[in-house]
Amino acid sequence: MADEDCNTLCYLSITFGWIYFFAWSFSFYGQIIENYRRKSVSGLSFDFEVYNFLGFTSYSVYTIWGYYDHNIGTGDVSIQDVVFATHAWLMTVVTIIQIFIYYDRHDPHQKVSYVCITISICLVWGALQIILIEDILKMYDPHVTKETKFVFNSVIYLGWCKVFISFIKYIPQVISNWRRKSTKGWNIHNILLDFTGGMFSFGQNIVDTIRHQSVIIHDHQSDALNIAKYALSFVSIVFDIIFCIQHFILYRTPESEEEKKYKTLVSDIETKY
């Protein structure tokens, strides 16, 4: 591939990367602002935030480590991935602080489910076991397996933890909306931004894959493929579509009494005149 084509793909990757960073990052602010304005976290799934905290903690380690150690097996990790992961973790912490401030003990929906607690404990326990085998007991050397093209270590585990969490974390909110037959308290703007971020993150991964397959940058071309990032983008896009269907089609916000009175008044005036 010509140098001009490589430069074009590089600039395109950077552009897609920063677009997805800002879209995904801004998606957190809508919920935080709405919680502050309402002085309430009613309608917000606590399971979702627990999964978010655990997931972005894992993803932050995964991206930071992968960015500085290209041989760890994460594939191509961009600076946007690192900044997004750490920023998302910080915004999740802010949301959790809001939960403690605006918590309503009389609301039966404002609690963390036993399923969420069990899954979280299992994932943390799994990470501790891998670290024990890998770093403390020295029973496994991930770098030796590079020769067999099988790479697995605690960092890879954390990346796949994030993928798994991203798949299950949306389910409690989907169920909560379905049970309440409403999306009130669930900010739709963060979903639209999340969808945009997912599309451009997926696009950046495609561009990076094409770029690395065209010019040998790593010892193995397959090393450029960031499977975890691909999976995260795809999962977020699918669930964002589900949320949009719930908000705009299934559970559209009913008109307020003021809106009904206004429309009735306008109708009466048009009938008279």
Key traits:
globular, mainly alpha, 273 residues, 8 helices
Write the SSE topology:
Elements (H helix, E strand, L loop, with lengths): L2 H36 L7 H23 L10 H24 L11 H23 L17 H27 L7 H27 L12 H24 L6 H16 L1
Helix pairs in contact: 1-3, 1-6, 2-3, 2-5, 4-5, 5-7, 6-7
The proportion of residues forming helix, as a percent range, comes to over 70%
The chain-level mean pLDDT equals 82
In the residues, how many domains can be counted? 1
What general outline do the C-alpha atoms trace? globular
Q: How many distinct beta strands?
A: 0
Give me the Rg, rounded: 22 Å
- Percent of sequence in beta strands: under 5%
Low-confidence stretches: 216-222, 255-262
Structural class based on helices, strands and sheet pairing:
mainly alpha
Separation, N- and C-terminal Cα atoms: 72 Å
Largest sheet: none
Order of helices and strands: HHHHHHHH
Tally of individual helices = 8
How would you briefly describe this protein structure?
The chain is 73% helix and 0% strand. It has helices spanning 3-38, 46-68, 79-102, 114-136, 154-180, 188-214, 227-250, 257-272.
Could you characterize the architecture of this molecule?
The chain has eight helices and no strands. It has 273 residues and is mainly alpha-helical. It has one domain. 35% of the residues are buried.
